[in-house]
Specification:
This protein is of the alpha/beta class and 275 residues long. The chain is built from twelve helices and eight strands. It folds into two domains: 97 residues, no CATH class; 150 residues, Nucleotidyltransferase, domain 5 (2-Layer Sandwich). The relative contact order is 0.12. Pfam families: RT_RNaseH, RVT_3.
């Protein structure tokens, strides 16, 4: 982190107060510091910049700040009384550091934003995608879906469909419904996509108010009602490249394509009905 030593000292105090909140809450705390910054934050009425944020975070605490010099005996005793091991200070302070100019306001681990399948998951996963041209450019579109069998990650089905008149959102829903409408022979289904709309509306996280999308959503619920369970996962675009590539190809060529595992001939009628 690009912070001055004086700022890191304040961040270290904030981290300590957060970690030991139960033990320290309600107490008067004596704080020894090598710099004048902390005392200025605690007492000044003309703060600016990051200091304002830190002052707000420290305001609930009763701090008695005392500045000491490195040559003072008190400073030596503090160093000798250390009972915890040293850690990477930049990493340890990152959780409480206020955002710098131009940086995101929230520091969230990207891994926490996306749900993952268990490593031992066994079953089918349907990834889908949809795209469309604006009405000015023709108003046509395409959708695609890929059915994977886990844990082998074998492709059971890969298909795309050209749509003469559609929107991006309807194309997304069409891809999801086409992937969910097959007689997959599985009780559990996992549906994944890099677009949030269809996934979050299926989960009920966001409301669906447009009539065209409501019809698609209701159709999807009918298709999945007989399954034992259906899970929806939002994934990064780079992990949905297969379905995205099929949808793009169908959009550019204005043709539909199906690659089907011959051992699943019972699916032929279901696929043919989509055309």
């Amino acid at each position: 982190m690009n912070y001055h030593a004086t700022e890191k000292e304040v961040l270290a105090l904030l981290l300590l107060l957060k970690t030991c909140y139960i033990q320290l809450a309600g107490r008067a705390l004596h704080v020894y510091t090598r710099f004048s910054t902390l005392e200025w934050i605690a007492k000044s009425k003309s703060l600016f910049g990051r200091a304002v944020q830190w002052a707000v975070l420290l305001s609930p605490w009763h701090l008695i700040v005392q500045r000491i010099k490195e040559k003072d005996c008190a400073f030596t005793r503090l160093i000798q009384s250390t009972v915890t091991s040293f850690v990477d200070i930049d990493d340890s302070l990152e959780l409480v550091a206020p955002p710098q100019k131009g940086s995101p306001t929230a520091r969230i681990d990207p891994q926490l934003l996306y749900t993952k399948l268990p490593l031992d998951y066994s079953g089918l996963v349907v990834s889908f995608d949809g795209s469309a041209k604006t009405e000015k450019n023709g108003g046509y579109g395409s959708c695609a879906r890929v059915v994977w069998r886990l844990p082998e990650w074998t492709i059971v089905l890969a298909a795309s469909a050209y749509l003469e008149a559609t929107t991006v959102n309807v194309a997304e829903y069409t891809g999801m419904n086409n992937g969910s409408s097959l007689e997959l022979g599985a009780d559990n289904l996992v549906v994944v996509d890099d677009s949030r709309l269809a996934i979050q509306q299926s989960l009920g996280v966001i409301a669906c108010r447009k009539e065209t999308l409501m019809a698609q959503l209701n159709h999807h619920k009918e298709l999945t009602s007989k399954l034992k369970s259906v899970k929806y996962l939002h994934i990064l675009r780079e992990f949905n490249a297969a379905a995205d590539s099929l949808a793009t190809e169908a959009l550019e060529s204005k043709t539909s394509k199906v690659v089907l595992d011959e051992s699943n001939s019972s699916w032929q009628d279901s696929i043919a009905s989509e055309k």
